[in-house]
Design goal:
The chain is mainly alpha-helical. Helix content is about 65%, strand content about 0%. It has helices spanning about 15-40, 45-60, 75-95, 100-105, 115-130, 130-145, 150-155, 160-175. Helix 2 crosses helix 3 (about 75-95) and helix 7 packs across helix 8. It is rod-shaped. The relative contact order is 0.07.
């Protein structure tokens, strides 16, 4: 590559530097892309952007591409490409993760305080409709966070009985609170 020469070709309006850059792309583009595709975890768009940035660096530093300094410019291009990929990865890791539209569409919408208070009142009323045995198991396991073994020990009943009472209590709650059925599964 001839350093610093930018003669304009009057026939098609391109410069000698542009021809040399196109030749670099043709000769070294595929190996650069292959390397950058691996370094960007298979992200083709990012790899293409990094190939382009590597060639821009070559255009900005024609002195580094002089043929008399070394046999091939490929090692220089691969080194620049690898460093650009490392810099891009570090920059992505330094930024918080981007949130796409798909994530926002699937995000659960939380109700305001009034809705939560109304739901809590509905659940209280539903718990009052349970038998005392079902209610005490439900309160211990779901509201106080006790394990099945802890609830069985506290109530003096077998763990299997705790499980069945919890199952039937939730089933009864689903019948009383049909609008909350998805939350109780």
């Amino acid at each position: 590559m001839t350093a610093g020469i930018t003669l304009t070709d009057t026939a098609n309006g391109t410069t000698t530097a542009e021809h040399e850059l196109a030749a670099l792309q043709r000769e070294h583009g595929r190996p650069l892309f292959a390397l950058l595709l691996r370094l960007s975890d298979g992200d083709r768009q990012r790899a293409e952007d990094l190939v382009q940035e590597t060639l821009v660096r070559a255009w900005q530093h024609p002195e580094a591409l002089r043929a008399d300094d070394f046999d091939s410019v490929r090692p220089w291009l691969l080194t620049v490409a690898r460093r650009l990929a490392i810099d891009a990865r570090r920059a992505r890791q330094a930024r918080p993760a981007e949130v796409g539209d798909a994530v926002l569409e699937n995000a659960r919408v939380c109700g305001d305080h009034a809705e939560r208070a109304a739901a809590a009142l509905d659940v209280r009323e539903a718990v009052k409709t349970l038998t005392p045995e079902h209610r005490e198991v439900l309160v211990l396991v779901y509201f106080q966070g006790a394990s099945v073994a802890e609830a069985a020990a506290a109530l003096g009943i077998p763990p299997g009985t705790v499980k069945s009472r919890a199952y039937y209590a939730l089933r009864a709650m689903r019948r009383v609170l049909p609008g909350y059925a998805a939350d109780l599964r």
